[in-house]
């Protein structure tokens, strides 16, 4: 084998190693980019949403009929958004995401932005990073671990 053939084979080998390494890196980057319900979303719901959007002994009905205490109930939707509250794979059209950005009109009815302020307080939106995390979670299929 001549020198030029050896150099060519070395170059091809280097490209092959780089390509395989690139696949491994992008696969691990994608895995790290996955939103985890228990780690990322559940704490947001617990802090900002669940107080009103669950059924308990004290509260027999969730606010607007929209529950966030189980995946099945959340995907069923509430009185306003119905099955459009969370549309797995489609965050931008999910009513939950829209309400985090501001008030919206859903099927002819005005719905206040979320989370609703406590009595006597002004509306305060969630931080943009949390809103975008919820959108990303919905875009990724709204996977849920109870």
Q: What average pLDDT do the residues reach?
A: 84
What is the gyration radius calculated from CA atoms? 23 Å
Give the end-to-end Cα distance, rounded to a whole number of Å: 62 Å
Number of domains: 2
Helix/strand/pairing category: mainly alpha
Strand order of the largest sheet: 1-2
| Strand-residue proportion | under 5%
The helical percent reads 40-55%
String of helices and strands: HHHHEEH
Low-confidence segments, given as residue ranges, are 11-20
Q: Tally the helices: what do you get?
A: 5
Number of strands: 2
Structure, explained:
The protein has 146 residues and is mostly helical. It has two domains: 1-33; 36-139, no CATH class. It contains five helices and two strands, in the order H-H-H-H-E-E-H. Strands 1-2 form a two-stranded antiparallel sheet. It starts with a helix and ends in a 7-residue tail after the last helix.
């Amino acid at each position: 084998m001549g020198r030029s053939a050896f150099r060519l084979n070395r170059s091809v080998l280097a490209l092959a190693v780089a390509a395989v390494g690139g696949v491994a890196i992008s696969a691990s980057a994608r895995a790290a980019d996955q939103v985890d319900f228990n780690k990322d979303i559940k704490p947001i719901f617990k802090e900002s949403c669940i107080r009103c959007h669950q059924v308990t002994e004290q509260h027999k009905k969730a606010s607007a009929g929209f529950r966030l205490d189980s995946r099945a109930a959340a995907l069923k939707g509430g009185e306003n958004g119905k099955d459009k509250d969370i549309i797995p794979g489609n965050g931008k059209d999910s009513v939950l995401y829209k309400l985090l950005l501001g008030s919206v009109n859903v099927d002819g009815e005005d719905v206040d932005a979320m989370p609703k302020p406590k009595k006597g307080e002004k509306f305060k939106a969630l931080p943009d990073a949390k809103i975008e995390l919820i959108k990303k979670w919905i875009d990724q299929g709204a996977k849920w671990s109870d």
